[in-house]
């Protein structure tokens, strides 16, 4: 993972510190060993520990950590999550960037775990979407997995999903599916988005592998499951929040995809406290 994230972390550090950290450099003139505590300030689930560590490591190769929780673990308000021991200048300069990653990722993991828990007694898999923060997708999708969810396609190169505008451009579902099968590698599944039962039947006739039921009400979803009769995998999508998931769990679908896992999750409040010289 380090190979994939280092450039992104460097970019984030440059954004926060384009030339120098004036505040730190004005009070710390030379190397000074110090220690700080990472404290959780609300209940939730942690995600992004390795990313958090990596931010500090980029500024101080000798920095050390005592980590008391791993990604996916539940954390409580006021617990000590980790200790950071190293160059005080690096600790101060990296603090905000490291916390931004950890708070955001932990917020997504916490939101995802709430949704996941609603489905834990079913066979439905909870999926994320591409509705992520630009240049932060790798972090946010990892956080979904830490929270118990599953990743949908990572990017446009990963798989075929024919949505309403693709279908319109192709001239219909049947044509779109056929064109996709002729172009895409044979290992790729073809997913088609449908908005009503007539479109569902057309996608089934075209032998789509996965059919996304977009913004359908519960009764229509149940009819779609009956019509499909396991001839394709069914995914429910469209404004799926935690509040809506409860009503979907008994419909018989295979997947629920929710952009809310990434675009509507808040942060988990964490702070770096008690910095002291050693």
Describe this structure in words.
The protein has helices at residues 2-16, 22-27, 49-59, 88-119, 137-146, 164-170, 173-183, 197-205, 218-228, 242-248, 260-263, and strands at 33-40, 44-45, 64-67, 74-75, 80-87, 125-127, 160-162, 190-194, 210-214, 233-237, 255-257, 270-277. Helix 6 packs across helix 7 and helix 8 packs parallel to helix 9 (218-228). 44% of the residues lie in helices and 20% in strands. Strand 10, helix 10 (242-248) and strand 11 form a beta-alpha-beta unit. The strands form three sheets. It has a six-stranded parallel sheet.
Keywords:
278 residues, TIM Barrel, six-stranded parallel sheet, alpha/beta
Estimated radius of gyration: 23 Å
Order of helices and strands: HHEEHEEEHEHEHHEHEHEHEHE
Number of strands: 12
**Annotated CATH topology of the largest domain:** TIM Barrel
CATH architecture assignment of the largest domain: Alpha-Beta Barrel
User: Which homologous superfamily in CATH is the superfamily of the largest domain?
Assistant: Aldolase class I
Helix content: 40-55%
Largest sheet: 6 strands, parallel
Number of domains: 2
Termini separation comes to 32 Å
Number of helices: 11
Characterize the quaternary organization of these chains: single chain
């Amino acid at each position: 993972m380090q190979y994939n994230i280092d450039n992104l972390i460097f970019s984030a550090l440059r954004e926060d510190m384009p030339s120098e950290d004036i505040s730190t450099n004005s009070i710390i003139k030379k190397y000074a060993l110090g220690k700080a505590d990472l404290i959780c300030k609300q209940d939730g689930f942690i995600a992004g520990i390795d990313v958090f560590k990596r931010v500090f490591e980029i500024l101080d190769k000798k920095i050390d950590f005592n980590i008391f929780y791993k990604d996916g673990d539940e954390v409580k308000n006021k617990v000590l999550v980790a200790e950071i021991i190293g160059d005080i200048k690096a600790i101060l300069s990296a603090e905000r960037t490291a916390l931004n990653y950890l708070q955001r990722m932990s917020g997504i993991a916490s939101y995802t775990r709430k949704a996941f828990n609603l489905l834990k007694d079913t066979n439905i898999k909870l999926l994320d979407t591409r509705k992520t923060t630009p240049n932060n997708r790798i972090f946010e999708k990892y956080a979904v997995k830490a929270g118990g969810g599953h990743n949908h396609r990572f990017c446009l190169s990963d798989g075929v999903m024919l949505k309403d505008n693709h279908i319109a451009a192709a001239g219909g579902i049947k044509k779109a599916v056929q064109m996709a099968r002729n172009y895409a590698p044979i290992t790729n599944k073809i997913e088609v988005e449908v908005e009503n039962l007539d479109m569902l039947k057309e996608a089934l006739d075209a032998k789509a592998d996965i059919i996304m039921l977009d913004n359908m009400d519960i009764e229509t979803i149940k009819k779609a499951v009956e019509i499909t009769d396991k001839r394709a995998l069914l995914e429910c999508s469209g404004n799926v929040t935690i509040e809506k998931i409860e009503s979907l769990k008994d419909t018989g679908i295979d997947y629920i995809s929710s952009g809310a896992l990434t675009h509507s999750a808040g942060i988990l409040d964490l702070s770096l406290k008690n910095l002291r010289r050693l």
